[in-house]
Amino acid sequence: MRAYLVTTGVLFAVITVAHVFEIVDRQRLFASDALILAVSVGLSVWAWRLVRKAAA
To answer: I want to staple 44 with a disulfide (CB 3.0 to 4.6 A). Which of 4, 12, 20, 36 is the partner?
Structure first.
């Protein structure tokens, strides 16, 4: 279970970083961009919190 959570956390963090780079390159922020960022950050943080909780 821990490996799945780490993989999920890393995957959503990579999606977040890639999307931030896309927004910076485009120099515009659309509502869909904000939604995608919020969801990907939320899922990544959630996965990392579960990893820390599972380790304890």
So the answer is: 12
> How many angstroms separate the CA atoms of 6 and 4, rounded?
6
pLDDT digits (tens, 9 = 90+) for 9-52: 999 999 999 999 999 999 999 999 999 999 999 999 999 999 99
Record the tokens describing residue 22, joined without a space.
Answer: 């896309």
Tokens of 52: 């820390």
How would DSSP label each residue in 1-33? Answer: -HHHHHHHHHHHHHHHHHHHHHHHHHT---HHH
Residue 46 backbone class (left: φ over 0; alpha: ψ -120 to 50; beta: rest): alpha
The residue whose two tokens read 């821990």 is 2
- Read off the amino acid at residue 34: A
